[in-house]
Specification:
Structural class of chain A: mainly alpha
Radius of gyration of chain B: 26 Å
CATH topology of the largest domain in chain A: Helix Hairpins
Low-confidence stretches of chain A: none
Distance between the termini of chain B: 67 Å
Largest interface: A-B, 77 and 93 residues
Mean pLDDT of chain A: 86
CATH superfamily of one domain in chain B: NADH-ubiquinone/plastoquinone oxidoreductase chain 6, subunit NuoJ
Helix content of chain B: 55-70%
Structural class of chain B: mainly alpha
Shape of chain B: extended
Strand content of chain A: under 5%
Number of strands of chain B: 2
Strand order of the largest sheet of chain B: 1-2
Mean pLDDT of chain B: 80
Number of strands of chain A: 0
CATH topology of one domain in chain B: Four Helix Bundle (Hemerythrin (Met), subunit A)
Radius of gyration of chain A: 22 Å
Shape of chain A: flat
Order of helices and strands of chain B: HHHHEEHHHHH
Largest sheet of chain B: 2 strands, antiparallel
Number of helices of chain B: 9
CATH architecture of one domain in chain B: Up-down Bundle
CATH class of the largest domain in chain A: Mainly Alpha
Oligomer: heterodimer
Number of domains of chain A: 2
Strand content of chain B: under 5%
């Protein structure tokens, strides 16, 4: 049943999208360029933002922040490659910046997890909605 | 930058792996599962770095993130996890209004970012087109070194180029980063000390110490040490 379904779907898809556009899409899918890297980076960034905004576990929130920083790194590296190919003078600046982002992420994780330990020792909780000392 | 052939295939495999692992990181009930999914997401992004020609960054990503930061995360999860969430006793997301508001915000962000990426990329292609001779599979300005013993493996010069420009253009930020790491080490040690450890280092306000001793008599035994 599924076997007969797929060609019909493909045909409908082709009818709706059109042959030129379909060929374009196929070419874009088999030849990913800078914009595909940027889209992946954007999606990772947004998943990270959603994690920071919705989760209750403070450690998972820290992990989501790592996701956000990592998405930024992906953009830096993709642009660095793009600039290498356009023949820019200092095209490796993106990769160097990525190294510093990783350094800052490591420092942030160390400090943040230290705060989590101290907080757990005093408040006995890791749920952010129960940590409301500064809220009035 | 245009990938083709197997590079394109691996690009999609790792891109999908990174996104699904990231989604599962945010949605997993158990924090340890979250950490493991985050590791697979980071490894997939490291593979994307290799495809983008940044071998050094990919190596650093795996060494620092997966080898260092994630192990630290797992340690802290083991230390503080109360184990209530995986049995379904605790809600893992914030209350419903917050989740709805943030999801709406995120959808707006998706739409805006995707629109901006497409428009910006089109403008970039106009203002900074890739020269014709750079197109095609695997063409990179950073050449590869001599072939290895098998004759097939090619060692790229990416690491050498990054090292050169790191010390040529960014040596001051490099030193500042080392000071930052030192501050982070000292700061996290200071933050994670217990009152006992602080008392034995004679680092507590005397009045506060008296109050704490009144609550917990164990602390009084530490006092002679500090004098």
């Amino acid at each position: 049943m599924l076997n007969s379904f797929i060609p019909i779907l493909a045909f409908l898809f082709q009818e709706v999208v059109g042959n030129d556009r379909l060929a374009q899409m196929k070419h874009a899918a088999t030849h990913p360029d800078l914009s595909k890297f940027l889209v992946i980076g954007a999606l990772l960034f947004i998943i990270g933002v959603a994690g920071v905004l919705t989760r209750r576990n403070i450690i998972v929130i820290f992990m989501s922040i790592e996701l956000i920083l990592n998405a930024a790194n992906l953009n830096f590296v993709a642009f660095s490659r793009y600039l290498q190919e356009t023949g820019s003078v200092n095209a490796l600046a993106g990769q160097i910046f990525t190294v510093f982002v990783i350094v800052v992420a490591a420092a942030e994780a160390a400090i943040g997890l230290g705060i989590v330990i101290a907080l757990y020792r005093n408040k006995e909780t890791i749920w952010v909605d129960e940590i409301d000392l500064l809220k009035w | 930058m245009i990938l083709s052939g197997y590079e394109a295939l691996f690009f999609w495999i790792f891109a999908l792996a990174a996104i699904f692992a990231a989604l599962l990181t945010v949605m997993a009930r158990n924090a340890v599962h979250s950490a493991l999914f985050l590791i697979s997401s980071l490894v997939s992004v490291a593979a994307l770095f290799v495809l983008a020609g940044a071998e050094f960054i990919a190596g650093v990503q795996i060494l620092v993130y997966v080898g260092g930061v994630m192990v630290l995360f797992l340690f802290v999860i083991m230390l503080v996890n109360v184990g209530a969430e995986e049995h379904g006793r605790e809600e893992i997301f914030n209350n419903r209004r917050q989740v709805t508001a943030s999801l709406i915000f995120c959808f707006l962000l998706v739409a805006g970012v995707l629109y901006a990426v497409n428009e910006g990329y089109r403008g970039l292609q106009k203002s900074r087109p890739i020269p014709e001779n750079a197109l095609g599979a695997g063409t990179r300005p950073t050449e590869t070194g001599p072939p290895g013993a098998t004759g097939t493996s090619m060692i790229t010069k990416d690491t050498e180029a990054v090292g050169n420009s790191l010390y040529r253009y960014a040596s001051l930020p490099f030193e500042i980063a080392s000071v930052l790491l030192l501050v982070a080490i000292i700061g996290s040690v200071m933050l994670a000390r217990t009152l006992k450890q602080e008392a034995s280092a004679d680092d507590v306000d005397p009045e506060l110490l008296q109050e704490e001793i009144a609550r917990d008599s164990e602390l009084a035994k530490l006092e002679p040490q500090s004098e």
